[in-house]
Amino acid sequence: MITGLYVGLEGPSWLGTMMALANAASDKKAFCSKYGISISDEDWPCKNLPMEILADRGELLSRHADELTDSLNITVANAPPFRADWKGIVEQQFRIANERVIHWVPGAVRRVARERGDLDYRLDAKLDLNAFTEIMIYNTLSYNKMHWMEWYRHDEFQIQSAVDPFPRTLWNWGIEHRSGFLRTRPQEAVLLALMPRGEASVTHLGIKWQGLYYTSEIAIREQWFIRARATRTWKVSVAYDPRNIEMIYIVQPKGGIEACHLLEKNQDFAGYMVEEVQDYVADRKLRKAEIKTDILQERAEFMAQVDAVVTAQEKLTEGAVSTDQSNHKRVKDIRQNRREERERVRKAEAWELAEHPGTPRKIGGGSQSNASASSSTVESRKRGFLNILKQTRKSDEHDNPTS
Fold first, then answer.
1. N or C: less crowded end of the chain, CB within 10 Å?
2. What is the rounded average pLDDT for all residues in the chain?
3. How far apart are CA 171 and CA 2, in angstroms?
């Protein structure tokens, strides 16, 4: 009995495995309706969790499969190497599917290596993923209903019941007479158990995972980021879908999940897969290691330039400062000196625009005569302004004598 299927472009990977396992435990009536196929529950009565899964030392021989045992209580067994006969039914499904339907649709690949003069199968392709999935659903329904398993050996109870060796007939007979092994769990729990797991760090910048930062309602409510800044960071267990980097899920120790959303500053990574982000982070680290020597060289040149400027100024200072002056005398008029230097710098840096656009004019001062005339005018205006303030103050004192 084919209990589930998945049609996609993923190669042998945990992503394809988790999609097939999720479909095996889902409602097939709803699944078929997505592709415009109307069936009853009796046509494909498979939406439960098994007690055990027999694999071929592939994707289920990994740490991702551990969660199936821990969360769903499913035993995962792997066949020994080079013993395809231990799972002959699964192995034969590829041959049967090819012979029944795949080799007869446009664009079928009958031979990997093409010879000279062979037609290019890529030019004959007509089906998209949805159409091909629809065909595979029809193939599964037909196989489960009417595929005569000549090799199947009936036991005495099946012989007494005159059970035909059709997959769906044997399934229904087993559910009726040997039930008790199939279990049902909420779809959310199944999907969570199939998601890969990882560890994220709670920091003052956010929940850091794969070099990106996330936030969640519980983190804001319990002030995780403030606590991380005040004390230290800590780890949390997360589950994630490799195809959706925008959201991860904190797995609570006592059950339940907390959704975490990508922060706005990392929204540039929205829409990418986990592998793409991992490649980007690894490339950045590699690039940083490659240019580390250049960075150190640039730093050394910068420090040499600073030292050269400081050394030159030290020599000028030693030549300008009198050795018989005390430290007190050197700093006595520092405020007055600062004011005078500020006035000098302001005059030197003042902007003077041309009266006619396009006429070149030196910014920051003109000729010596112009600079002298400008300075004289400024000083004259200052003296006039000070005289006006003095006269105003004397007039106020005369009108309002103090007692």
1. C
2. 85
3. 10
Which amino acid belongs to residue 118?
D
| Long-range contacts at 76-80 (CB < 8 A, ≥ 24 apart) | 76/52, 77/52, 77/53, 78/54, 79/54, 79/55
Output DSSP code: residue 183: B
Residue 373 has pLDDT above 80, yes or no: no
Model confidence at 171: pLDDT above 50: yes
Of 142 and 58, more confident: 142
Q: How far is CA 101 from CA 65, 108, 138, 199, in A?
A: 32, 10, 10, 44
Q: Model confidence over 236-277: pLDDT tens digits?
A: 999 999 888 899 999 988 778 999 999 999 998 888 888 888
Instruction: Tell me the two tokens of residue 170.
Output: 């044997």
247-251/212-215 β-pairing: unpaired
pTM of the entire structure?
A: 0.67
φ, ψ of residue 55 to 5 degrees: the values are -115, 180
C-alpha–C-alpha distance, residues 166 and 174, integer Å:
12
Lowest mean pLDDT among 5-14, 117-126, 189-198: 117-126
Q: Dump pLDDT digits (tens) for 336-369.
A: 989 999 999 999 999 988 776 666 555 554 444 5
Are 3 and 21 spatial neighbours (Cβ–Cβ below 8 Å)?
Answer: no
Gap between the Cα atoms of 233 and 99, Å rounded: 58
Token pair 């339907």 is found at: 101
Contact 87/56 with Cβ under 8 angstroms?
Answer: yes
Torsion on CA atoms 316, 321, 323, 329, rounded to nearest 10: -160
The DSSP bridge pattern shows strands 206-209 and 212-215 to be: antiparallel
Which CA distances in Å does 145 have to 40, 93, 141, 148, 168? 13, 15, 6, 9, 5
* Rounded CA Rg of the chain: 41
Contact 70, 165 (CB under 8 A): no
**Phi and psi at residue 304, to the nearest 5°:** -65, -40
DSSP 42: T
- Structure tokens belonging to residue 287: 């690039």
pLDDT score of 403: 43
Give the whole-angstrom CA distance, residue 67 versus residue 74.
9
